[in-house]
Automatic annotation (TrEMBL):
Entries under Pfam families matching the protein: SUI1
Top-level taxon: Eukaryota
InterPro entries: SUI1 (IPR001950), SUI1_dom_sf (IPR036877), SUI1_euk (IPR005874)
Family (UniProt): Belongs to the SUI1 family.
Gene Ontology molecular-function annotations: translation initiation factor activity
Organism: Microbotryum silenes-dioicae
Keyword tags: Protein biosynthesis
Gene3D superfamilies on file: SUI1-like domain
Name the record gives this protein: BQ5605_C002g01128 protein
Residue stretches making up the SUI1 domain: 66-136
């Protein structure tokens, strides 16, 4: 995960996920939270004040999506990335077919979080989507990202 301006960057921030918030209370040992407003949470714990703990649980997405993104390189140069391809398709064969069809270079990158990612030179997003739809992949599972 990369950071932009010292904040974690989440590549899937634009995806919709259901979030459930669960609130629980710790036992109070006297005093009120209003007496110590503005103090850090760890200080409130030391004072034994009542705490509200929020737990976020993310619901898994229903369908696995294929993500096609474009990334800006230097000047006018761009890279198109393809990830989330179903396991019945061989990424090496897809890469070879894309390189031949689009007359561009490309590579296969192993990522810890994303699995195998196909990278192609240039903006190939619409062409990749058209080929995947012709191969029988549902149009709703293909997500196009970028400018």
């Amino acid at each position: 995960m990369s950071t932009i301006l010292n904040k974690p960057y989440d590549a899937f921030a634009d995806e919709e996920q259901d979030v459930a918030v669960e609130t629980t209370k710790k036992a109070s040992t006297g005093g009120t939270a209003a007496d110590h407003r503005g103090l850090p949470e760890w200080w409130m714990i030391l004072l034994g004040e009542e705490q509200h703990i929020h737990t976020l649980t993310f619901a898994p997405t229903v369908a696995n999506h294929i993500h096609i993104r474009i990334q800006q390189r230097n000047g006018r140069k761009t890279i198109t990335t393809l990830q989330g391809v179903p396991t019945e398709y061989d990424p090496k064969k897809l890469l070879k077919a894309f390189k031949k069809e689009f007359a561009c270079n490309g590579s296969l990158v192993d990522d810890e979080e994303m699995g195998q990612v196909i990278q192609l030179q240039g903006d190939q997003r619409t062409k990749i989507a058209e080929i995947l739809i012709e191969e029988g992949i549902d149009k709703e599972t293909i997500k196009l990202h970028g400018f």
